[in-house]
Specification:
Strand content of chain A: 15-25%
Number of helices of chain A: 8
Radius of gyration of chain A: 20 Å
Largest sheet of chain A: 5 strands, parallel
CATH superfamily of the largest domain in chain A: Response regulator
Order of helices and strands of chain A: EHEHEHEHEHEEEEHEHHEE
Low-confidence stretches of chain A: none
Strand order of the largest sheet of chain A: 2-1-3-4-5
Number of domains of chain A: 2
Mean pLDDT of chain A: 85
Helix content of chain A: 40-55%
Oligomer: homodimer
Chain lengths: 227, 227
DNA sequence: CTGATTGTTACAAAACGGTGACACACCCAT
DNA sequence: ATGGGTGTGTCACCGTTTTGTAACAATCAG
């Protein structure tokens, strides 16, 4: 399992340093930003697994950052922990309305932040959709159970193959490039050749047997799941 | 469809406010209570569609409230989501299983609570409540009685093993990651190695003897209880 | 036909999970 | 207090599976 990246946004250098040190010490990669605009740019580019976001920021404040991120498709699911000072109850609540996953009131202990980060990451991004399943005559995919049935018989997919299939089905009908697959299935920190995807596509097709043709090649572009 | 009423019982004002706001924001009516006795009175009078109940409460604690409600004919079917923090508390909820429909470990994210509320309300018929018991030829698990029988003979499980088995059975069919098990069985404050789960799975399998294969390994992901 | 793109195969390295051993903290009876 | 028994978390080791890559074959488009 590769390291998760946590992004910390805080204008107070002391607190920022403390947070970065603590979180890094717990084995995460840390990216920092000191104001809202930088936070937005970095968050979109680096795709951190989680954001620790101060409410009070120079320029664009935490709420706006939160709102902007929730608006973007790619960043909407990014969990956010808000840092608030006491007495900002209204602000805090509004922040949560905008999709923050949790909040911590200052002054906080580094340990507390870590616990929340871990708790949220463990659960993974709660999916808004109930148990996404692909179901057609003789071909059954259950993402929650992590199971694939073909003509009633379970077939064994490795973790990567399953993630790849899930990604294909989630975007059924749409072509995705190899790089997109690398990003979503392997993670954005993966440094390898794009042709790796080809190999896994092949293995997947092989195991899908009669349904191999659902995974279509779009020459010059990438792959697509046929609806 | 008229708004459902959700009742939130929690003595910490911050958390209560947060919950109330979040749930209200999702389009439910919210009633709150800060201690066990008030909770009982309000629950009987207002008949909420669902109860979010903290385990630790001043005076009468969450379990007692739960027990009382289950006793009353009018309130017995009321779904309850328990909030727990520490490992020992998880013990009590899982062990006694006094009719709570689900439980969430603190710290939780507002989004998570909402998902569970929706999930339970969607189930509608209380008959679809997850059965507290696993029963098959020669293999009998009674979560309430905290007892496991194999071919009629009781087998001795330690507290951790039982909680682990309970968690597996509660989510039978679904894969859960090691981290998720740590969260639900050990509690969020546990700071240890994820492979600890492996060891307990092994001990559990050992004791399950002929039914060891009910606990399936999903390589690269986690574990799953076979239906 | 030809260059580019994709499919196929083989293989070594890495990742993963099972297992036994062990240290430690408890608890309880001595 | 002492000592054995029990439950628990961690570690190191090992066989197996998985995975990324390279090299080669097949296919496609122009």
């Amino acid at each position: 399992m590769s390291k998760s990246t946590i992004m910390v946004v805080e204008d107070d250098q002391d607190i920022l340093g403390l947070l970065a040190y603590t979180i890094r010490g717990a084995g995460f990669d840390v990216v920092t930003a000191a104001d809202g605009l930088e936070a937005l740019v970095q968050a979109r580019r680096r795709r951190p697994a989680l954001l620790v976001l101060d409410l009070m920021l120079p320029g664009m404040d935490g709420l706006e950052v939160c709102r902007e991120l929730k608006r973007g498709v790619e960043t909407a699911a990014m969990p956010i922990i808000m840092l608030t000072a006491r007495g900002e109850e209204i602000d805090r609540v509004v922040g949560l309305e905008l999709g923050a996953d949790d909040y911590v009131v200052k002054p906080f202990s580094p340990r507390e932040i870590l616990l929340r980060i871990r708790a949220i990451l463990r659960r993974g991004a709660p999916s808004e959709k109930p148990a996404p399943i692909w179901e057609e005559e003789g071909f059954h995919v259950d993402l929650e159970a992590h199971r694939v049935l073909i003509n009633g018989n379970p077939i064994e997919l490795t973790a990567t193959e399953f993630k790849l299939l899930a990604e294909l089905i989630r975007n059924r009908g749409k072509v995705q490039t190899r790089d997109q697959f690398l990003d979503k299935v392997w993670g954005y920190q993966f440094e390898g050749y794009a042709r790796t995807v080809d190999t896994h596509i092949r293995r997947l097709r092989q195991k899908l047997g009669p349904f191999a043709d659902r995974v279509e090649t779009v020459r010059g572009v990438g792959y697509r799941f046929r609806e």
